[in-house]
User: Fold this.
Amino acid sequence: MLKSNTDFESIGFQLNSSYSSLPKKLYTLMQPEKVTKSSLVVFNDALAMQLGLNFSKISDQDKAAIFSGMLRIPSSNPLAQAYAGHQFGRFTYLGDGRALLLAEHMTPDHKLIDIQLKGSGPTPYSRGGDGLAALGPMLREYLISEAMAALNILTTRSLAVVLTHQKVKRQVELDGAVLTRIAQSHIRVGTFQYAIAEGGLETLKALADYTIQRHYPHINEENRYLGLLNEVIKAQAELIAQWQLTGFVHGVMNTDNMAISGETIDYGPCAFLDVYEPKTVFSSIDYSGRYAYVNQPAIAAWNLARFAETLLPILNKDQFLAQTLAQNAVETFLPQFKDEFLKGMRKKLGLFNIESNDETLIEELLSIMQKVKADYNKTFVNLALDLDSFRINPTYNAWLEKYELRRSKQKETFAESVELMKRVNPSIIPRNHLVEQALLQASEHQDLSLFEHLLDLVRQPFAYMDEQLYLDQPDLQSSKPYRTYCGT
Ligand code: AMP
Ligand code: MG
Assistant:
C-alpha cells in the first residue's frame, strides 16, 4: 500500500474536475467498486511520461491499486458519464455502464485529458450488466490503440491493464481486468443526444460551450455552434480517411462510439483487413454488414447528421434556417473525406504531385486488388519494395504500365518516392491471427511474452525490420473468415 500522500505527490497529477461543473443530468459522481486484490499486467511508461506523470517511485503493486480503483487518488472526484446513442440505427439510453472517469489531468503542455477506468464495476447506467471487463478484451484495446497511435491515427490511449482477481462470467468464467484509458475527452455524439433528449436546451448549450472550450477553443465563427459542427465534421473526415487508408474496420460505429474530439474510441470488435474485400465485416453481431469497411464513410456521415440534429435548437432561432445550415455542413463531410483519402492514397503510391487521373489510377488498383484477393497492406509494401512481384500477375500489367509512367514523370527520384511510401505504408499491422495468439497466451496461459513482443513490433510500424515484414502476412492456414465479439 502507499504509505503517505507524498508518494502521490511525486506522481505529479494536476487534477481538474471540469466535467462535474456541467449540469448534473450528464453524470453521476461515484467511486469505483472496491476490489480487494489487484496486480499489474502492463503499464505504459512512455505514455505516462508524455502526460507528465512520474511513476518511478511507485511500485507495481501500488500502480495496480491506483488503476483498479482500490486506492483513491486524493482530491479526485470520479464520475460515470451519461450518454445515449444510436446502436445499429436504434436510439437507446446508455452511459458508462462499466467505466468511470477517474480524474482529469492537465499535462505539462496544458492539455486537459481524461483518465478513465474501464471494467471498474456497475454504475447507474449498467442496464443489468455486471460493469466488468475480462483480461483478453482489455489487452486487445491496449494493443490496438497503441498500434493506432503509432500509425499516426488519432486515438484514445491505454495507460495500464490491471488484473482484479475477480472472475467475470461470460460464456465461460474469465479473469477480470481494468483498463486505464486516456482520452482528450469522452464526449461522444451520444453525449449530445443525451443532453438534448434528457436535459433540454440549457444542458445542450452548457455541453456545447464546454466542448468548444475544451476541444476547439480557436473557433471564431460568429455562429459558434455551427463552428463546432464544422470542426467535428473535419476531424471525422480526417479520421475516417486514415481508417480507410490503413484498412481499419472499427466494427461498431454507433453514435455513442464516435468521439467529438476526432479520436478513435472503443476497441471492441475492430480488426484490420487482410484481403482487400470492401464488404468485409468482422463483428459477429453485424448481420447486415452495416459497419463493413466500405460503409464506414457513409456511416460516419449518418452519425454526423445525428450530431447536427442535436445542435438544431442552438444553430439558429429559425429552425428552418438551422436545418439548412446543418444539412449544408453535413454535406461537406464526404467531399472532405474523399480529399483526405486521395491525399493519403497518393502518398501510399509514392506520388508527390496531383494529377487529374489519379483517382482513376487508384480506383483501378483497388478494383484489381479486390479481383485477385490481394492482401491490402502487403500490396502497398510490395509497391514500395518489390515492384517486380506485380509483373508476374498479368492482371496488373496495364495498370502497372500507367503507374510506372505516372511515377517516373514526377520531379522527385524513384528513391524519394520509395522513402515516401515507407513513411506511410506500415511494415506491420496488428494482424488478426497474431493478435489472437498473443491474447490467448496472455489470458489462458498467463504468458505475456508474445503480447509484449507484438506490442513492441506494432509500436514501430514504419521501421521496416525483416521480422515485421515476415510476420505481416494473413493467416494462410485458416479457411474460416475472422470474427470478433463486442461487449466482452
Ligand atoms: P460498447 O459496445 O462497449 O460501446 O458498449 C455499449 C454500452 O454498453 C455502453 O453503455 C457500455 O458502458 C455498456 N456495457 C458494455 N459492457 C457492459 C458490462 N459488462 N456491464 C455494463 N455495461 C456494459
Ligand atoms: Mg462504447
